[in-house]
Amino acid sequence: MTDNLSDTPRKSSGAGHLTFYILGAVIAAVVVALLFPEVAMSFEIGGEIFLRVLFMMVVPLVMASVMSGIIGLGDIRKLGRPGGAAILYYVTTTVLAVLVGLVLVSLIRPGVGTVDQQTLDAITAEQGAVSAEQGEADVGTIMRNLVLMMFTDNLISAAGEAQLLPLIVFSIIFAGMLTTMGARVKAITEMIVQINDALLSFILLLMKVAPLGVFCLVAARFGEAQAEGEFLQVLSQTGWYFSTVILGLATHAFFTLPLILWVFTRRNPFQFMFQMSQALLTAFSTASSTATLPVTMECAVAKGGVSKQSTDFVVPLGATINMDGTALYEATAAIFIAQALGFELGLLELLTVAVTATLAAIGAAGIPEAGLVTMVIVLNAVGLPVEYIGLILSVDWLLDRFRTAVNVFGDSVGSAVVEKSFPESA
Ligand code: ASP
């Protein structure tokens, strides 16, 4: 048994096949869901198990990888340049994504006239699915909350709730301190690096059942949608909105990010996308960039050839705060709602949407439909009634999958771009 385990990580020959198995699983699951929705729904338990096992890895992996990334640097002060590069990358790509969303939604104007008064009334009446936490949403308050999100007064409960930011902050400080303590802490530093290696082997093992897990996840959710007739709704009522967000996500994933990757690394962007495809498909299946994190890290290093140091540092933080797809969606959805309600937004309001969508995406957790909840911030900021989130509710579960894949691709590209700024990257 043990021999098998330690062998696993080195065998990368099956990696290509695995991608096709996962892709096949997604396609098969959609077909089964459309034809036999009731049967498809019965796979829910398998999906839930896969999701739980992925999530189980997240907290130890984030702590071990961030710490071992810093230990690998040898000295916390060397983090300055890559740290700055990572933050610059996160902010630039998120803002670009928001701009793409704003331009497309302003040109296509999917909201205008798509929703009649009757539907609006119905939505107001039946809403309740979203518990919109109303509150002041001025930029100052949002910033304050974002800063507070980085700190916890209880590390154990932060770990219990998978709040990754405080864990990352702790890991950076703790590992930074270890690097200054020399031989006295040799056993601890070695142990952290070894735990990190062991966790990666664990993930490789997990990936062997990924096609099965992915099949169950997709079949169950799509089956449920089919049984409830949500697919038809997607096509009719919110088709233009849906297409606008998809077009924006595609522009970001197939144009903006590839261009950035090529300019900074001269890598072939589409080859890189293929190398990351297991992570992208897992993101699509789980709708959670946090659950996908183990796969993203494994793919970036083992398939994308990104240095472990850069991956360890850029991807966990990115999974938490760098959400290009979510930012693009938040901006587009807010303007769509404004258009549907007949609100004309001026330049100042558009700017407010851009800023708050960026902040809302940073604040969104990497879990399914987190973006829908933080969108309250954007709507509040421009004075749009929060209950009209109901307008986009029916398709959110599906859009969530695409934006999560874009979020994960953004993090992967980030690890390759920021790699260049590490002092002595191999
Ligand atoms: N589900 C997304 C993620 O995990 C967040 C969101 O946009 O809802 O990346």
Notes on the protein architecture:
The longest helix is centred in the N-terminal third of the chain and has 30 residues, at 44-73. This protein has one domain: Sodium:dicarboxylate symporter (Proton glutamate symport protein). Residues 1-14 and 127-135 have low confidence and may be disordered. Helix 2 (15-35) packs parallel to helix 11 (210-227) and helix 13 packs parallel to helix 21 (390-418). By secondary structure, it is mainly alpha-helical. The radius of gyration is 21 Å and the shape is globular. It contains 21 helices and no strands. It has helices at 2-7, 15-35, 37-41, 44-73, 80-108, 117-126, 139-148, 155-160, 164-179, 186-207, 210-227, 230-236, 239-265, 269-275, 277-286, 289-302, 308-321, 324-340, 347-363, 370-381, 390-418. The protein binds aspartic acid.
